[in-house]
Design a protein that fits this description.
mainly alpha, about 70% helix
Amino acid sequence: MNMELEAARKRAVELGNTGKNHDWEELTVLLKSGYPAVRRAAASGLGKMIDRSPDLARLLTPNLSFALKDEPAPQVLQYILKTLLKCAPFLNALALDDLGDIVRDPARTDYVRDAANNVIAAVRPSAARETASPFPVLRSLFPSSPPVPILFITILATSWEGVGFFLTTCR
């Protein structure tokens, strides 16, 4: 095994097991490593840090959301998703869209799609069922409004006047 890889992986494990709150920055750097084993250990380490200090969840959510977007390795993605599950209250609509894309991607492994769906369900239980919708952003913009048929939204969204009318009536 590559010595650089092994040293970085061990460092990520060490920080996750015994690191202090300020060590999260080093783990987020390791989350960008060229080695999947290091990224997986970094994601796991961040999850352990959140377990010890839940206040870190808000701080780490953007880093984890960004790492989620381009991760090619299914096992690393699974660890990122498990850690994001702990950050669910702080996820924004864009992160939910990315998670929905993962759930709908047939090329993803079942365990990755299931993990993404678990995160969505933790944010908003009804959102897990909505991920099949082609309009996840519209649904996340109006989570407390009464259900509006997608056809109605599609017709209104075809003109600026329709969008203005829709936004005015949903207030």
